[in-house]
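User: Some background: our group keeps a shared notebook of sequences we're curious about, and every so often someone picks one and asks for a predicted structure to add to the entry. Today it's my turn. The entry only has the sequence so far, pasted here. Could you supply the structure so I can complete it?
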Amino acid sequence: MEEALLSGANPNSAKNQTVGFTMIHQAVRSRNSAAVAMLIRFGADANIESLEGSPLQLAAFYGDKKTVKALLRGGADVSAVGREGNTALHLATTGEIAGRTRCR
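Assistant: Of course. Here's the predicted structure to add to the notebook entry:
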């Protein structure tokens, strides 16, 4: 990925135009916070939407704290509302970690 970016690849170009996944969405789905941070350094948009939502919404759904932090450092909008009316907070409470968390 870094080699492609160094060669001038656009980090915001969608790999699949129908779904709208970019490299940053793939890195989030792979739970690879280092790749997310690198992509942001190369100009990836931390708020770019896909059919599944923004990168932050996906990371929140997966419960990936490291990736959430990388995205927030990269300017991700915590109040962004996805296509289905959800924010990252909504998705964090209903996603993969929902059953493993408790309020204290």
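Suggested note for the entry: The chain has one domain: 2-100. The mean pLDDT is 85.
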